[in-house]
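User: Hi! I'm working on a homework problem where we have to compare a predicted structure to a textbook description. Could you give me the structure for the chain below?
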Amino acid sequence: MLNTSLIQSRALVARQQLLQQQEHKQLAGRIHDEICQNLTLLSLQLSLALMDPKPPPNWTQTCKQWSDLVLDLGQRLRGIINELQPRILDELGLAAALQWYAHSAPKAITCRVLLPENPVALLPSVANELFSVCRDVIKDVLVPNGVSEVTLQLEQSGELVRLHLRADEKSDLQEPALARALDGLSIHERLICLDGSVEISSEPGRGVALVFCVPLSREAVSHAA
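Assistant: Happy to help. Predicted structure tokens:
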């Protein structure tokens, strides 16, 4: 009975995660199709308006201000799209998404990425959730606790994929506080739904480290009964 309840609970959480991923993807697509493209068109129209031979007073300055505003909005929207659903994750996989994240991470933190020589072919749903878990931990746990440098290392060993997340030794973040923060983000439950796990460790002078581990080829439990 307990096992049945556990399976049902995991299946429910997994379905919720899958629905959230789908909603994020659809919203990102709408922002791109309905807003960004129109902003680009408006920017072009404003540029053409600058060429009007008989413009009203201060028209050039006004158009320039509008054009700058449109371009700024477009950049902000692209940032939102990538936060909701990085397109590179769907198109090129987890390794490429981690590299992209390292270059676009918040200014408060520096990320270094170590990747295996051979590609890691995770299922898209698993790759999405593993990336989301890693990003949430960095954004909501490490940065607020003063971590300024992290190293991400992706590796495959047999049928397991491990994503190592090591924080720099300068942080005051301790293992018990990190464990509580992970509980607040439901990290353990999210990984259990992928038949995965998370391990926390700390070494004097080396800071704290996490290892997210998921199976390479097993489907998440979203279809469990």
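For your comparison, note the following. Helices lie at 2-49, 59-84, 87-92, 94-104, 124-142, 175-184, 187-192. Residues 2-84 form one domain. Good luck with the assignment!
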